[in-house]
Amino acid sequence: MKIGVCSITFRQKTVDEVIEIAKSACLDAIEWGADVHVKPGDILHAQQVKQKTEAAKLDVSSYGSYYVVGKGEDFQPILDTARALGAPSIRVWAGDKGSEAMTEEERSIVTEAFINIGERARATGVRVDVEYHKGTLTDTPKSAEQLMNETNHENVRLYWQPAESISYSERMASIEQLHTWIRHVHVFHWMDTTRLPLRDGAEDWLRYIDQLAGADRYFLLEFVRGNDDQQFLDDARVLKKWLSRK
């Protein structure tokens, strides 16, 4: 298990500043986001970010894209940019509707699109990982499991994060239900939508980690209280301490 940060945690920072704070926190990796730091199609910039990340002795854990699977958008710029960045996986989104709002026909379109991009990415040595999020087909464990079973592609897996507005026991049950497909984990502690210090979530997170331990995955810090550098450094220290138990 390794520790990283999603660059979207610090959208206000430059690439160099994100690298510097990741180094200060003694992290292993950065997930570079596509909205600000490494935009799709800017191949030269992606190559430069790769070089800077490696020079800082950090890994690129993934390319955090905002590609919505099933919308018919061109996947090639995303894939080309991920390869230039040296990202082993691309994070994508499972449609633009929640599972209850999506028709069977729409769901089938998303599933077929996942199979297509999963195969295209595999041909270039890149994996596809699905954001676990409300308003998409991963808004419930049941729907996420259905998506994985229907896609049935070894190159398509899931992220996991503590979903908002559900109980601790429901989150633990979701880990058990989806464990086979979970690749990486987004780490943060919220109360509803209020960001809190990660250490305040120790009781829950220590149990999540117990359930998620034993695999080669990244735990990626995200959503720091107040977007504050010192809070981030404290969150990183806390997460490192928790993971060192395993």
Can you describe what's shown?
The protein has 246 residues and is of the alpha/beta class. It has one domain: TIM Barrel. 41% of the residues lie in helices and 20% in strands. It has eight helices and ten strands. It has helices at 15-24, 43-55, 76-85, 104-122, 141-151, 168-178, 202-212, 229-243; strands at residues 2-6, 29-33, 59-68, 89-93, 127-130, 156-160, 182-187, 190-191, 194-195, 218-221. It has an eight-stranded parallel β-barrel with strand order 1-2-3-4-5-6-7-10, surrounded by five helices. α2 runs parallel beside α3 and α5 (141-151) packs parallel to α6. The longest helix has 19 residues, at 104-122. The chain is globular. The model has no long low-confidence stretch (mean pLDDT 96).
Task: Explain briefly what this protein structure is.
This protein is α/β, with parallel strands linked by helices and 246 residues long. The chain contains eight helices and ten strands. The strands form two sheets. It has an eight-stranded parallel β-barrel with strand order 1-2-3-4-5-6-7-10, surrounded by five helices. A two-stranded antiparallel ribbon has the order 8-9.
